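[DERIVE C-ALPHA CELLS]
===
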Amino acid sequence: MALRIVFAGTPDFAVPSLRAAAQRHEVVAVYTQPDRPAGRGRALQASPVKREALARGLPVLQPESLKTELSRDALRALQPDLMVVVAYGLLLPQAVLDIPRHGCWNVHASLLPRRSSAPSKRATPRPARA
C-alpha cells in the first residue's frame, strides 16, 4: 500500500531520502526552504531538494514559516499519511506534527559519541573495535 507522503528537506543530504520516498510511495508535496541568494552575483538559488522535486514533477511548497493557520491548512489539505523530515531547517510546531495520520519521521545526520549523550559536535568517527 503506497502512503501519501509529504517530504520536507533542503540540502543535498536530504535528496537520497526524497528519491527513496518517491520510488516507493506517493509524494504529494515537497516542502523546502525558500530560494536564497548565493554566489558572487547573489542570484536566487533553489535548494537541492527543490531541484530534485521539480525534476520529478513533484509540487514544491516554500513557506517562510509553518506557524500560521494558513500554512497548516495547506498541509492538512494534502491529507498526508506521513511526513518525512530530513534537514528541513524550520521548526515544526506540534500542530503540524499532528496533521499526518501516521505522524512525522525525522532523519538526522548527527554522529553521536560512544558511551555519551554529548552533542554531536564532540563526536569523532572511530575505528571499530575487534
